[in-house]
């Protein structure tokens, strides 16, 4: 990870921590743990102390999990295609520091001894919690925030991408049940409808050229002809892809891109 990617990751972490719906989910989780008292805390702590204990543990665990999720999004983007899978990996990785942290908190609040079996048990207990936190974060952050005044020109679709892949839109493409989003900083597969993805490209200028393709109207878009007897109009985008133009979109493409 270079300095630019690290800066983008830190900005994404700051953005995620500022989302109200994330903290709504956090409050619900803390309240649930405080009421049910899992891992023996119901019997060992009175209600007020139990609430304080889980507030501390969950706050630290969520911070570790969120940081791991953002960093894994930058580091694993090129080798792991799905954002949700990367978050699950991040949850597994974050379980180690979370488990150690919980062991230290238990020592301070509950008076438990610190030993290797206790640390291992803490990591084992932290694993499902950490993965669940990352999954909850993914669900809470899945819908992009309404743009503020300083981000009004940013397409909502870009907020679905990892910080390292957010850049100028080049094209989007249907691949099975996924949508491939290509920018000048990378590419990402998103599980969403193509029509919804196109709607979220606004205000970036673009045009649908095929039932499975949308391209941004950029100065570097080139028109080419396929070879063979049935030559057809193609568009070459900045990433080197050659996108076919359907007959139903041909007139619109010629008027806005040229032939």
Write a structural description:
- The protein has 259 residues and is an alpha+beta fold.
- It has 2 domains: 3-141, no CATH class; 165-256, OB fold (Dihydrolipoamide Acetyltransferase, E2P) (Beta Barrel).
- It is 52% helix and 15% strand.
- The chain contains 8 helices and 8 strands.
- The protein has a 5-stranded antiparallel sheet.
- It is elongated.
- The model is unreliable at 147-151 (pLDDT under 50).
List the helices and strands and how they pair.
Elements: H1 3-17, H2 20-36, H3 41-44, H4 47-75, H5 83-109, H6 116-141, E1 169-175, E2 178-183, E3 186-190, H7 194-199, E4 206-210, E5 213-216, E6 222-225, E7 233-236, E8 242-244, H8 247-256
Antiparallel strand pairs: 1-2, 1-5, 2-3, 4-5, 6-7, 7-8
Helix pairs in contact: 1-4, 2-4, 4-5, 4-6, 5-6
What attributes characterize this protein structure?
259 residues; alpha+beta; OB fold (Dihydrolipoamide Acetyltransferase, E2P); 2 domains; 3-stranded antiparallel beta sheet; 8 helices; elongated
What structural category do the secondary elements indicate?
A: alpha+beta
Largest sheet: 5 strands, antiparallel
Shape: elongated
How many strand units? 8
**What level of helicity do the residues show?**
40-55%
Total of DSSP H or I helical runs spanning 4+ residues: 8
What is the N-to-C order of secondary-structure elements (H for helix, E for strand)? Answer: HHHHHHEEEHEEEEEH
Strand order of the largest sheet: 3-2-1-5-4
Q: Please tell me the total number of domains.
A: 2
Radius of gyration: 23 Å
Q: What is the CA-CA span between the terminal residues?
A: 41 Å
Mean pLDDT: 82
Low-pLDDT segments? 147-151
